[in-house]
């Protein structure tokens, strides 16, 4: 909901520094708050990991780390797309459903060859993303309601394909797809490598291409971006498409990993992805964000989850409580940091 | 550009849209009723109406609170989680009797509402995000308190869920009374007027000296309390506490009912009658599809289409 | 010497909106290196003309010939690419993006892999901005710059994209005097480089300082064009307002009568040492019952902030406000309102009216708790109050149920006045009460202010309209840079005195001094 966002120009009266003068004092504290915004999650991740390493013998083992990495990979891919969407000031609640849909489609398509198995989820989920983008960008509907509807629609579609969830399609052993999901390279699962590659590509696209600049510009001030020549509608359609494609890909890889298109997955994944992105320092109001931060956010969530599992006596539901609390804390901190910077 | 385009829209088309926004939902309900009377066997039975009404009652109750929140230009995604929380807490404290259990439920719900309200009104977090945090955390808390489904055997609770007065189930009566109460609040109280003013223009409301923060906090508390009522009633009807699935996607159903009912997402207007009709419309649509043996997947897709159509129809109003 | 080339020739441009002929058969010619003033009252058609030139609207009739070719821009972007750039009132850049990225958005330098070349971008950004007197770390977000510097970035962006025409829509409205000077020197440089500038401003002194030629619009028509130097200040005003010269001279422009006097020597409101970091530095104002106190000063001198600080809408770091002997809790609008202090805000549309609610609900908004018992509204009492004020202020609405957003500016302002008068206030703070409303409503509001003061209300009047300030106030407190620099009482309240006080010992800008000696 961009409605509530006020792009208050810096107050006329704090323009005491004339054109040319560089303010010294505020610059430092601004950099500090930017630093906290960008790297706060990383610091927390390091601390939590260190504490966990010393507290639980089974935490820093090769198996556990490798498991955590693989299970983080799928969420991370979804969060990557979500990062783009959130930087434009939008939100995509349909990714959980698209994740499930992508998995089912991949498993269903695997009977017709690897190419179909990989392309089908990307195309279908991408198409849902295009529809989301069109409704948000062209019809100017609120992103959360559009993608909420898409979440429902995509889940419906997934159920329709699986005979109301009764059918679970399997992915044959030994196929290229199965290898993609289950195989390892240099000790880490293939999905991890794919995820890392996608994040590098995502970072380059976001920071070093014109499209990336447009993503920031649209989220920073949509009207100004349009006047400055940024293709606002096209950028929005692209980010929702990208988010859909990535959610579908994540689902397909996950299905390959599990060797089947499990229909009950992806519930609440959109919340996890949003949490990860926001924890990683991306502003929910748009215009500011980091791909690397989202990766850190995902890892942080997964490490906390792992720690909760390690404790054993704790129910896994605590994970949600912690996530929710974490999200609240981060958002409150962001709001305060943001407000401080407005005042400077 | 958009403004210019809007101005050149022929007047009768604008009027048609206006009509659709205000009365479309009632026309939709009427249409579905007629269609069902014609094509659905045994549709015109008291039993059927009773079933439909009992099913829709919790949705209506949640949607009432959602309508108030949306009226302030906000949204409350945590309602489903609050329902689950209400179910858990009911199960935990039912041993002390129904009334004490209900009081504890109210306490928990008020806590969630206060947290939402404080994040929105005091800290200034966007409503979607604030309530998202509580949505995640709330459901987690519900599951922590009660990890799995538990059967409840309490005669009072059972009668609350399935009892009736003169053939009208308690559920329907409670929903109706709450709807009237909320409608009255919106129309005839200072709180209602202030809520609308805040939703329409927050800065103006602030400078007019309205207690903006207090109103916002109260709105989120009311929304949480209504969701808790719905949670308790649904639990009573099931005679079981099911924190895993109770209230799942309820936020979506409630938002749909509100939006379909002609309350714009941009705030400043609340249409309670429309909201009730909106909930009924979705219920009838679902029932129609199910009665004609269309699978749930179709219902979900249909609901998605209805939401988008409703928001699409309402969008003209958002851009004053 | 050959005359400079014609860059733009507009012939017979017309645009009609439902019910309004916004622009009617307007011509405009621009030459290379010409600084052209475009002036007119609110609603004269300036912004419509600009929007037609920049592709926001399409004309109903008429041609736009740009650099010898007829053009028809579909979007502002197209116009910008062709060479017509606009610098808007509020800086239209992206606050969170770095200065360099803002400068280069859409035409970023790229390396041979097609990726953005940041090193080159930063180097070039720094070089470019130096030419505009802006020396900053271009990697920092734009919002860390002052408004003036931000505007320079916008200007540099426009020029760098090879603009042939730069349209500036009230560019100085939020600039410091020093920044205005920088802006003027940049404009002069643009002129020397052969770029045509269209300068839109309400500040006459600026127009005379920087513009060569002028077009005056009124009611959608061009009523004058020519060299600015050939048109003296008074003629300009009378052309703009469509009044006879004599009328301006003899009658003045306001309907104030001055039929009120302070009835009590004790002030009803006493604000002492109001301080808001960066904005107000120990401002003190007192108002007696029945007195209209004007608050003078340039834009950004702290007038609006003073009113907001008094009414609790702007938290103060120190200072106190005493209303009728009772100290006020700072930073609380409700507390100020309860004590009888009401603020009519400057930004009527976004801070005043609640556009989607009815006239009735808007009028009763603040007073509602008093008309309620146990939170239940007494509709009869609301009706009686609402009807009283609709009648008394002659609010023109189809019914009390009409949405306020649909009313004219003047009637919206009256609704706001009614909202506060219904509270029976002791002090009214009026921030630009007649800005952007039609002449008739303006006169009515001015008359009403007189009447209210005569009834014993204390009034604080803020106005950029000097005539209004001088004729309406018993006393004028003059602010400059967030501090009181003088107070004019009785016969001292004249335009000349006011100008001199505003300018102070060391005049902040030549233009003001020029204006002062003119008056």
Automatic annotation (TrEMBL), chain A:
<keyword id="KW-0812">Transmembrane</keyword>
<feature type="transmembrane region" description="Helical">
    <location>
        <begin position="144"/>
        <end position="162"/>
    </location>
</feature>
<keyword id="KW-0472">Membrane</keyword>
<protein>
    <submittedName>
        <fullName>ABC transporter permease</fullName>
    </submittedName>
</protein>
<feature type="transmembrane region" description="Helical">
    <location>
        <begin position="182"/>
        <end position="206"/>
    </location>
</feature>
<keyword id="KW-1133">Transmembrane helix</keyword>
<feature type="transmembrane region" description="Helical">
    <location>
        <begin position="321"/>
        <end position="338"/>
    </location>
</feature>
<feature type="transmembrane region" description="Helical">
    <location>
        <begin position="237"/>
        <end position="257"/>
    </location>
</feature>
<keyword id="KW-1003">Cell membrane</keyword>
<feature type="transmembrane region" description="Helical">
    <location>
        <begin position="72"/>
        <end position="95"/>
    </location>
</feature>
<feature type="transmembrane region" description="Helical">
    <location>
        <begin position="115"/>
        <end position="137"/>
    </location>
</feature>
<dbReference type="InterPro" id="IPR001851">
    <property type="entry name" value="ABC_transp_permease"/>
</dbReference>
<feature type="transmembrane region" description="Helical">
    <location>
        <begin position="40"/>
        <end position="60"/>
    </location>
</feature>
<feature type="transmembrane region" description="Helical">
    <location>
        <begin position="277"/>
        <end position="301"/>
    </location>
</feature>
<dbReference type="Pfam" id="PF02653">
    <property type="entry name" value="BPD_transp_2"/>
</dbReference>
Automatic annotation (TrEMBL), chain B:
<protein>
    <submittedName>
        <fullName>ABC transporter permease</fullName>
    </submittedName>
</protein>
<feature type="transmembrane region" description="Helical">
    <location>
        <begin position="77"/>
        <end position="96"/>
    </location>
</feature>
<keyword id="KW-0472">Membrane</keyword>
<feature type="transmembrane region" description="Helical">
    <location>
        <begin position="23"/>
        <end position="43"/>
    </location>
</feature>
<keyword id="KW-1133">Transmembrane helix</keyword>
<keyword id="KW-1003">Cell membrane</keyword>
<feature type="transmembrane region" description="Helical">
    <location>
        <begin position="49"/>
        <end position="70"/>
    </location>
</feature>
<feature type="transmembrane region" description="Helical">
    <location>
        <begin position="215"/>
        <end position="234"/>
    </location>
</feature>
<dbReference type="InterPro" id="IPR001851">
    <property type="entry name" value="ABC_transp_permease"/>
</dbReference>
<keyword id="KW-0812">Transmembrane</keyword>
<dbReference type="Pfam" id="PF02653">
    <property type="entry name" value="BPD_transp_2"/>
</dbReference>
<feature type="transmembrane region" description="Helical">
    <location>
        <begin position="167"/>
        <end position="186"/>
    </location>
</feature>
<feature type="transmembrane region" description="Helical">
    <location>
        <begin position="296"/>
        <end position="314"/>
    </location>
</feature>
UniProtKB/TrEMBL annotation, chain C:
<dbReference type="InterPro" id="IPR050107">
    <property type="entry name" value="ABC_carbohydrate_import_ATPase"/>
</dbReference>
<keyword id="KW-0813">Transport</keyword>
<dbReference type="GO" id="GO:0005524">
    <property type="term" value="F:ATP binding"/>
</dbReference>
<keyword id="KW-0547">Nucleotide-binding</keyword>
<feature type="domain" description="ABC transporter">
    <location>
        <begin position="8"/>
        <end position="244"/>
    </location>
</feature>
<protein>
    <submittedName>
        <fullName>Sugar ABC transporter ATP-binding protein</fullName>
    </submittedName>
</protein>
<feature type="domain" description="ABC transporter">
    <location>
        <begin position="248"/>
        <end position="506"/>
    </location>
</feature>
<keyword id="KW-0677">Repeat</keyword>
<dbReference type="InterPro" id="IPR003593">
    <property type="entry name" value="AAA+_ATPase"/>
</dbReference>
<keyword id="KW-0067">ATP-binding</keyword>
<dbReference type="InterPro" id="IPR003439">
    <property type="entry name" value="ABC_transporter-like_ATP-bd"/>
</dbReference>
<dbReference type="InterPro" id="IPR017871">
    <property type="entry name" value="ABC_transporter-like_CS"/>
</dbReference>
<dbReference type="Pfam" id="PF00005">
    <property type="entry name" value="ABC_tran"/>
</dbReference>
<dbReference type="InterPro" id="IPR027417">
    <property type="entry name" value="P-loop_NTPase"/>
</dbReference>
